[in-house]
Amino acid sequence: MYKIQTLDRISSVGLDNFPHDDYEIASEILNPDAILVRSHDMLSMELNGNIKAVARAGAGTNNIPCKKLAEQGIVVFNTPGANANAVKELVILGLLLASRPAIAANKWVDSLAGKGAEIPTLAEKGKKNYIGNELNGKTLGVIGLGAIGAMVANTAIELGMNVIGYDPFISVDAAWRLNREIKHAETLDTLFSKADYITLHVPETPETKGFINTSTIRNMKTGVKIINIARGGLINNEDILEALKSKKVACLVTDFAAEELLNNENIICLPHLGASTPEAEDNCAVMAVKELRDFLERGTIEHSVNFPTCKFDTPIPKGGTRLCISNKNVAGVVSKFTTVLGNANFNIASMLNQNKNDLAYNLIDVDGLVDENTIKALSEIEGVINVRAITA
User: Fold this and answer.
1) Residue 298 annotated among the catalytic residues of the structure
2) β-strands 139-143, 162-166: how paired?
3) Most exposed: 34, 151, 278, 365, by fewest CB within 10 Å?
4) pLDDT 10s digits, 209-256
């Protein structure tokens, strides 16, 4: 029986994918094997030694101490792409709101309450104060062409926009998803100089924090409109306010409210609505549950932010054992695994080693049931973080 602790409300559509006979799920549970989380702050949490994995039902993991958990051999999963459509639709809404002052116009129309039969005439006279522009024919710069950025770029093409994309780390799979009409920018400055609209789709890292600032804004077209539904820290708020004041930037639509951004007629602040749809919550929960099940039941790692991808396509051998071993990525460790297993007379049926930065992860299928003494010997090898045995 595996025990799963939920730190937030997790969609029942996802939780229903745990077999009830094999899993116990609760918000308060003793010695859980894994944690399911959304936005709960785990940065200062002390986890018990039984926890093997944390799955975040969402893409960002800023609320999880991923590096610290990696050092303890705890795998952290996220669900990239599961909420992509919800975020994409909000970005498209942001483009429209940046173009047509619908929110301000709605507020003005509401102010006509009480004027009765005069309202249609007053509305017609006042509409000239809320003229916007069309997206068709304008140029959109998309920074980051992962799951969300690619969907935004493709939809913008369908809306008649010219699209320029920038992503120095784009994968082959992501490139295949892009409409052939999307142009590739070799540098950010190229994108900045041509874009009427800019939308951000990159994670917040030490390298990207505040990268929309006075220096980068200087290279943008005058009157550019910026959409940020990715991470608040990507924009230097003090610098963007100055750019709005000087009219260098015409409008900012952001999903990250801050005191200094409120009550500015050229800023539309939303309360982090990016993935706030029931469909996205369901999709993220389903994906997170699948990741945990694959890991706990088969040792498979996919979509981890702190461990390498590592999976066998074959099931655990009948009557055999699958060893899941985390270790520091140093030379000579793998050969010590085979020595220990060989000395214990275990035949290795399959073996896979993958590494990511300072960590390595191994899946080793052996014939027969591995005893506690052999697991102890493997655990005592220098550099090994933890060893887990799964039987068929």
Assistant:
1) no
2) parallel
3) 278
4) 999 999 999 999 999 999 999 999 999 999 999 999 999 999 999 999
